[in-house]
Amino acid sequence: TAQEKLFQVRSSFVDKVSDPVLNKLLDELLHCGVLTDSENEVLRAKPRADKARELIDTVRKKGVDASTELIKVLKANDPYCCRELGLC
Q: What is the fold, at CATH topology level, of the domain defined by 2-84?
């Protein structure tokens, strides 16, 4: 499942994803309803690595649909990273 895929690439995602891409992911996941305003605010205040780690954890807890949406948004915003992680 998408949740399992995110769990498998969690540490690589934390190492590879850039802060600008993370911020774009947060914007889009907020817009489509995967993240709430308060979750978005808390994540934005974190350092890059913590933001990436907690983004994956937060989205995974929300289920397959949310996890699938994160992968889709990552693919649209950083297809290179998505391929490197084996998600696309």
A: Death Domain, Fas (1.10.533)
